[in-house]
Amino acid sequence: MISRHAWRYATKVARLFALLGVTKREREGLGADLAERKKWKAVSLVMAWLLAFLSVSGCSPPRHQEDPFSTPFGVGVGDVPITAAQLDALGPVWYLDWSWRGPALEGHERLYIIGCAEVKGDRGAIPAAMRASGASWWALGNEPNDPHQDNRTPEEYAELYFIFEGWAKNAPRCRILPAGIANADWQWAEAFREAFRAKYGRYPRVDGWNIHNYILESGLDPYDVGEFQRRILAFHRWMERIGDGHKPLFLTEFGVLYGNGCCGRPVDPPEKIQAFMRDAVQWLVESKVVACWAWFATYSEQYNGSLMTKEGQLNDLGILYRDLVQKHVK
């Protein structure tokens, strides 16, 4: 099945080849009508070749216009702080630690995150940090649509985001994102946009979109890569509908939280999460729908998916993630 992105790309390339294939001398010698027919015959031939290639390979041009970081691979720093040297063990990865305080770890790009509860009480420290951070990406909050996380209505979040926007105006090298939206819920994102417009008369400034994607619902398989893909694709289709399909989509948390005995769930064999990681990462790399992604987490006391021991040494899952980074980052 050819996507409309592939069709547009093929059309542009075909026209370019056709124009190159009909020389000025041919146009003068053949006459305008015949030259035009020859040109569009070339278009048809090149289109057929390109569409056949794209349908077999599944290729399409990148869906976002820029790569936020020098590597798409990232990690969430979990319950134990880590050093730059420990992060180096995973290779060239960016990171987030759900904070904006302190300098970034040397040699690694960082997504800075401001807590929703920090906004209204700030006395200038956050905008000062934004200005000092240079060319960087900042996000506001963590899962505002989750009652166990930031737990804000779209209207409440819109008020906070308006303040965040104001800070960013005085930090022109910063790019800004909404919070990671739990369950890749595009309907909540839509409600936030509309709440912002209702209050301020325009849509919010959004330099990219930001989602989290775990399969946590009862009755669903948390290792279902097909469901993982479906949610991301649904969110990106919504981005295209609102005219933001060219902007980067961040996946700032993914993995499998259940499987180590927490949350009333059984212990699963480690091969299951390893297979999920391989398949999910392969799809992320090949589909190009997501600009960058962060596995959860380096270390978690409660949840499944730790890449390291508490002491910061790579475990088997961390070694697998490191190998995937090495395979795909040139």
What does this structure look like?
With 330 residues, the chain is α/β, with parallel strands linked by helices. It has two domains: 54 residues, no CATH class; 256 residues, Glycosidases (TIM Barrel). It is built from ten helices and eight strands. An eight-stranded parallel β-sheet has the order 5-4-3-2-1-8-7-6. The longest helix has 26 residues. The radius of gyration is 23 Å and the shape is globular. 38% of the residues are buried. The N terminus is likely disordered.
Distance between the termini: 29 Å
Give the assembly state of these chains.
Answer: single chain
Strand segment count: 8
CATH class of the largest domain: Alpha Beta
What's the helical proportion of residues?
40-55%
Rg on CA atoms, Å: 23 Å
Order of helices and strands: HHHEHEEHEHEHEHEHEH
In percent terms, what proportion of residues is strand? 5-15%
CATH superfamily of the largest domain: Glycosidases
Q: Can you list the strand order of the major beta sheet?
A: 5-4-3-2-1-8-7-6
